[in-house]
Design goal:
Length: 824
């Protein structure tokens, strides 16, 4: 069903029931929680919720996600990454720009509230509120109160209507975007500006009480109460983990503001406290940023699908300047002359004010043409935009005393790290005329109930949320939700494969050290809170980038595989067009992303992968073929090592890649020394064919290597551990004129004796994953000739249900002696 049908059906049921509006409001007029912070301590309430159908919500949620992603890309796409230039362009003043540059986030938050108008064809955006200071998070209380009314409760149950708890979603956003989990119980300072604090304290106190119930140790305060000392930000002596900012950018540019902000912002930059959310949200939320997305000169920056999405949700918006612009119908006009003669179709808005402040409605009854002209000319080349008028679809609502009224609503749709996060409406009665819809002008507040698909037996709550994106079936998958939080659960199955894709029924999946590191200390690579720059994915994700599967479906344009083929895909996806791809170096593509890290991966029953990165396994057994992808990485690491009786190759770190590098060398007849601190991994190195094993936890590995090489050192050293001690050993162990190759990923900066490397002319290079066209076929060929490589590398085969205890946790403890493979 859709919004219109649900509304008409409910109104008919209300008429038949004869329930007066006073009863439909239930306890809302007397609810202290929802009336806190309202004018005079008493809110105005709509006697019924508004409704959205599943398809409408799906499209709206996707359009808002596209909008956030497009906004985040503007500094890079239009200003070469110069954020200050972007902030100036969207209307921030120089003091505001300076403040933003003091307190920027690594990525744009996903917490937002879009204020929208339904015009009968869809939703159009009036303003976009982004960051920690957005309101409307108390929708859960309004929905619960209204659902105590029997007629609405029966209607909601009959048509599968529900709501999202925005307050719980807000807490989830805070934890996720600051890197904490619910079990950490971080100390949170809910921080207002000193001058506003006394008025806001009752509401802040109530909100902190609600947050404490949800896992935050939250305390209200103002910025002047925070102090920085002993490497932490403190409130009344207690170290603060997270500052949740409710003050605005207008506050931090006032007189003497730097006295309050500088020390705290510098502490955040040093990592001593997290700020949710940084001040850069002010630039992204500016209506000037929306105008950049709307302007025809920038449309080429986005794909046709994104442009269509933006056109659906963004009304025509232009900065107020003397220039020619393009209208929706393609006509070119002088902006000022057009605006002067079409006032009834336009709104004049300041770029950085919210809540309807400073908005001039060109069609207002009390606005004369002379006044419109004066306001328009005064706005020239200042932080203002002109926006196309959006005509509201009115909502019929019962009113106290009997009868109904036609209300003009603005819909507030909240988003967070998991997408849609609930909604509400503000609406003016007919008597208010064309006034801006705001609480100051007498707006009533209403709830939003939305239609959801039929519940899936045994499905986790996340499945219902993700199904809003159009997945029709579910599967079992290992899903990363955060540090220490991988769940084997029901999850939406991938859709039919798109152009160039194949869908695999996964039969084997390998657990990589990267998977374990994400599980124990991540997210490092998984885009949990913000879209990945290349894949676009954000949020919980199916892990696993090593897999073997049977083709069950092919997308348009795929003629290399057919259903029934058994294939192994590479782990990474490259664009194919950039300078590196054209030169065959697809592993360092500028738009590279990895299965199971940046998009859903293979620790699941089904997965879609590009056909061009997949290879047939031939007659190889799946238990052997599963080693092809990690072996391809190892082969790239040893790509130019050839048999030489006088040559010594050292591999430091005998995990998955290191042990397979030893095996690849052994298969070629190359003498190899293996180094590790784990007895289990040293055993793996022995089985892989290392001629000498060194336990670096008990021996000086570099001294042993120099001793066995006559004091010279190793000809080739491959550092595959990613540990600082491993790097130090590698530098000390390589001989003059030798070759040092770095393969392991180092999370933190490590010291490197470059002087010695230069003076002794040591060749230093790196190796990243694999080149699919080169290394994957070679890996499959080597496994065909030497299937024992897979046998010696394998530790255990487990089921997906046992992934966490027998796989991730066991590897993290150091108990695995080789590769752990999951049988699906």
């Amino acid at each position: 069903m859709d919004r219109v049908t649900l509304t008409e059906t409910y109104l008919a049921e209300l008429e038949a029931a004869g329930t007066p509006a006073e009863e439909l409001l239930a306890g809302l007029p007397h609810n202290k929680i929802v009336n806190s912070g309202k004018p005079s301590g008493l809110g105005r309430w709509l006697a019924r919720p508004v409704f959205l159908g599943d398809a409408e919500l799906t499209r709206l949620t996707a359009d808002l996600d596209n909008l956030l992603t497009a906004l985040e890309s503007l500094p890079r796409k239009l200003f070469g990454g110069d954020f200050a230039a972007f902030a100036r362009a969207v209307g921030l003043t120089e003091p505001q720009v300076a403040a933003v540059m003091q307190n920027r986030g690594e990525r744009l938050t996903r917490q937002s509230r879009a204020d929208l108008v339904c015009d009968g064809t869809g939703f159009k955006l009036l303003e976009f509120n982004i960051g920690s200071a957005i309101g409307g998070m108390d929708n859960v209380d309004v929905c619960r109160e209204l659902l105590t009314v029997p007629v609405l409760a029966r209607f909601a149950e009959r048509y599968g209507l529900t709501f999202v708890d925005s307050l719980r979603g807000q807490v989830h956003n805070i934890l996720t975007e600051t890197g904490f989990s619910a079990g950490d119980h971080p100390v949170v300072a809910l921080t207002e500006w000193p001058s506003a604090f006394p008025d806001e304290l009752p509401y802040l106190t109530q909100l902190c009480g609600r947050w404490r119930e949800l896992g935050l140790d939250a305390v209200p305060c103002h910025l002047g109460q925070l102090e920085v000392r002993d490497g932490r930000v403190r409130l009344a002596g207690r170290p603060v983990d997270i500052i949740v900012r409710t003050f605005l950018i207008r506050d931090v540019v006032g007189p003497d503001a730097s006295r309050l902000t500088t020390a705290v912002f510098e502490a955040a930059r040093r990592g001593e406290v997290k700020i949710f959310t940084p001040l850069d949200t002010a630039a992204y939320a500016s209506k000037g940023a929306l105008s950049l997305l709307s302007e025809e000169s920038n449309r080429h920056l986005f794909t046709p699908e994104v442009v269509a999405s933006l056109d659906r949700i963004l009304p025509w918006t232009r900065r107020v300047r003397r220039e020619e612009v393009t209208l929706e119908n393609g006509d070119r006009v002088d902006l000022v002359e057009y605006a002067l003669s079409h006032a009834e179709d336009l709104v004049l808005k300041p770029t950085s004010l919210f809540g309807g402040k400073g908005v001039v409605l060109g069609w207002a009854d009390d606005l004369t043409p002379e006044a419109w002209r004066a306001l328009l000319l005064a706005a020239l080349d200042s932080p203002h935009v002109l926006q196309r008028r959006v005509r509201h679809v009115l909502e019929t609502v019962p009113i106290p005393g009997g009868g109904v009224d036609r209300f003009r609503p603005v819909w507030g749709i909240a988003t967070g790290v998991d997408g849609f996060m609930g909604g509400s409406v503000r609406a003016l009665p007919s008597a208010a005329g064309d006034a801006v819809v705001s609480l100051a002008n007498g707006a009533h507040i209403g709830a939003l109930l939305h239609e959801t698909p039929a519940p899936l037996a045994g499905a986790a709550p996340e499945v219902s949320r993700r199904r809003l994106w159009g997945s029709a079936t579910v599967m079992k998958a290992a899903v990363f939700h955060g540090r220490g939080d991988v769940r084997v659960q029901e999850w939406p199955a991938p859709p039919a494969p798109g152009p160039g894709e194949i869908q695999l029924a996964v039969v084997r999946a390998g657990i990589c050290g990267t998977d374990v590191e994400e599980f124990t200390s991540g997210p490092h690579l998984i885009p949990l809170t913000r879209p990945h720059f290349a894949s676009g994915h954000h949020g919980p994700l199916v892990i696993g980038h090593e897999m073997v599967g049977e083709v069950v479906a092919t997308g348009p344009g795929v003629d290399t595989f057919a259903p029934g083929d058994m294939v192994v895909p590479g782990s990474g996806v490259s664009c194919g067009d950039c300078r590196w791809c054209v030169r065959g170096r697809t592993n360092i593509c500028g738009r590279y992303y990895t299965l199971g890290l940046h998009v859903d991966g293979g620790l699941a029953e089904r997965v879609n992968v590009p056909a061009r990165i997949s290879r047939s396994v031939g007659d190889l057994d799946p238990d052997v073929a599963i080693m092809a992808q990690p072996l391809a990485v190892a082969l790239r690491a040893v790509r130019d090592i050839t048999p030489d009786p006088d040559q010594t190759v050292v591999v430091i770190g005998l995990g998955s890649i290191g042990s397979l590098a030893v095996a690849a060398c052994a298969a070629r007849g190359v003498r190899t020394v293996g180094v590790d601190v784990s007895a289990a991994r040293l055993e793996t190195g022995r089985r892989a064919g290392a001629g000498l094993l060194i336990d670096a936890s008990h021996e000086d590995a570099s001294a042993v290597i120099r001793a066995v090489t006559g004091g010279h050192g190793a000809d080739v050293v491959i550092e595959a551990s990613g540990a600082p001690a491993g790097l130090a050993t590698a530098v000390n162990a390589v001989c003059r004129g030798g070759h040092l190759r770095l393969v392991g990923l180092h999370r933190d900066p490590s010291p490197l004796d470059l002087t010695r490397l230069v003076l002794e002319e040591v060749m230093l290079d790196t190796s990243k994953v694999h080149i699919c066209d080169q290394d994957l076929p070679e890996a499959l060929a080597l496994l065909t000739d030497h299937p024992e490589i897979a046998t010696t590398a394998l530790d255990e085969v487990v089921t997906l249900d046992r992934l966490i205890p027998d796989g991730l946790e066991r590897i993290a403890r150091g108990d695995a002696t080789g590769k752990v493979v999951v049988r699906l």
